Amino acid sequence: MTDGREDRPALDRWFERVFDDDESSRLGSGWLSGTASVFLGGLGLLAVLVLWFPEWLTTARFRALYPLPALRGLIQGVIAAGFVTGCISMLLRRRKVLGLTGSALSLLAALLGGGGVALPDSLEARPTLGLDWFVLNLFLLADLAQYAVHRAFHEVPLLWRFHAVHHSSRDMDWLAGSRLHVVDAVVTRGLVLVPLQLAGLAEPALYAYLVFVSFHAVFIHANVRFSFGALESLLVTPRFHHWHHARAAEARDRNFAVHLPWLDRLFGTTHLPRGEWPDGYGIAGDPVPEGYLGQLAHPFRLDPTAP
Known about the structure:
The protein is mainly α. The chain contains 13 helices and no strands. The protein has two domains: 1-130, no CATH class; 140-307, no CATH class. The two termini are 30 Å apart.
């Protein structure tokens, strides 16, 4: 098994060639502000494009449900934050490409009208790309929150007791995503969905998000070995998530993202050998017992490493 640079997806290798350098990524080096600037600038530009082309890029049934004044203010704030963090990165970092890219994306979004782009009084009914859902998923930080919660369930010993139930599956299939301890399920869903509710999304929009999340969870756990090519760099696919469940030591605590794999690239937790699949799944030593009641009680045992 190889894990060199040549085995990474093409988009990863391109990103590294363009943005990587030999400088530190520690706090205060300009790396964090630079990556934040690229993210915020790109996000602001996507949001402005949605406002410019609502007929083609927004989901028709949800247009009337969005809190538009709040979203306009949020877009303006994201654009401003992207420009400021880009400037900070350029001041701190010898190579300016991260900060310059983020600032340029933010400036372009502002020149195109920012959050103040006027919307037409009426829109024609036509097939759309639904880009608004992608942008909103990033704006409300649902995936970032899920990444953080998921990583915490791996790195905090008390939380891992509960999450180990999910990783105890020794075979990957569409039902593996449903093997969850109730505490794991409630905490993860609560910390992701409650902020979306508080942000003002209407119930139909939340229901649609839940439907997407549910189907995607089945998809990434499915027992399939298809190659999805360039899509693997844009969306979590079965191969990406199967490596998260692999028994191999080099795959441990990797690939935390649930929908957007670039989060793992951003935080250095990607493991995706090109063209390869794991040889086995589960936890070394198989400490989690079989049976629902045994798994329900497992996190509360004095010695959770014992089967």
